[in-house]
Protein: Hydrolase
Amino acid sequence: MDSVTQAALGAAVAGVVAGKHCSPKVLLAGAALGTLPDMDVFIHYGDPVSDMVKHRGFSHSIFVLLPFSWLLALAWQRIKPTSFTFMHLWLLIAACLLTHPILDSFTSYGTQLLWPLSASIAVSSIFIIDPLYTVPLLLMVIASLLWRSKGAKLCGIGLGISSLYLAWSVSALSMIENRVEQQLVGTELEGKPVFIAPTPLNTVLWRVVVLGEDTYWEGLSSLLDKNPTIDFIAKERGEWPLADKPDHLQMLEAFTDDFVKYQQIDGTLTATDLRLGMVDYLPFGFRFAQQQADNSWQFMLPTTIEQPNVRIKHVPALWLRLLGNQAIDANLCHQAECPKNQTS
Structure:
C-alpha cells in the first residue's frame, strides 16, 4: 500500500496498543514504524527486475521483523526510557511493523511474509491506493490528536472501520471469482490460469485476466453489473522465441506466476507483467535481449521499458463501467491490441 496509508495504519495501531499511554509522540512513532519496512525501496539490487522481485522481501518478513522489533525495543528502553514496560513496548513496535506487510499481502504485488522461504503472498483484494481504506484511519488519527483523552478509542474505531472494509474486499473478490468460475465452465477458457484484481481506488470494478499459451483474455466485471456475463477480449500474449531464457526472465516469470506478455520492440525482446496495471498501461515491462547485426540475439542486463502516462480520458469511462455500464468495455482497451474477439 502507499506510504500515507501505511503511516496512518501504523499510527492507529500504536494508539490502540498504547491504550492510556496514547499521545501525539506515540502516534508519530507508530506512523514512522508503519512506513519502515518500505525503506527497502532505497536498496538497489543491480537491475530493475531484481529491484521489483526483491521488494517486499526480507524487510516484510515476520521472521525478520519479530526479532528486529525485540532489538529495537531493547535499544529504545536503554536510550530513552519510557513509561511502557518492556513487553508493552515490544508489542507496540512489533504490531506497527507487522501490520505493514500483512496489509501489503492483500494487494496484487506479492509480499514475502515468510522470507527466506520463497512463498509470495498476494490476496489481490485491494488496490495499492484505496481511499475507503485510508480515510477512516486518517480521520480517527487526526481526531485522536485533538481529543487526546479518547485517543486509543478513536484509533480503535478507525482501525475497526478499515478492517471491515478490508474484509469486504475479500468478500467482493470471492463474488467475482465465483462469477468468473461459473462463466468459464464448458468454454475453451475452462481450466486456464485466472488472475483477478480490483481496478484503481475501488473494490467494485474488477479486472480479470485469463492466461493462454500465446493469447490472453481480459475483461472487466462490476458488482453492479445487471448482466454477470464478462465480455472477454482476446489479446496477443506472444512467446519467448529463443531456446534459452536469461535468469532474470525466469525470475520475473516465477514472481508473476507466468502472467507475462512477450514482445519484440525496436530490436529488443521484452517481457511485461500482466498482473499490474490495466487498459493500455502495464507499468512493469523490461528488455531482456538485444538483436545483433547478424540477426542473432544477445542477452542483456534488464532495462525498464518506458510506459505512456495514464490517460485521463479513461477515468470517466472507468467510473461509468464501475456503475454497471457494460457497453463501454471495448472502449477501455487499447484498440491496436484488442480486436473485438469476445468469448462468453
About this structure: The first helix runs from residue 3 to 18. The chain is about 40% helix and 15% strand. The radius of gyration is 23 Å. The CA atoms of residues 58 and 116 lie 7 Å apart.
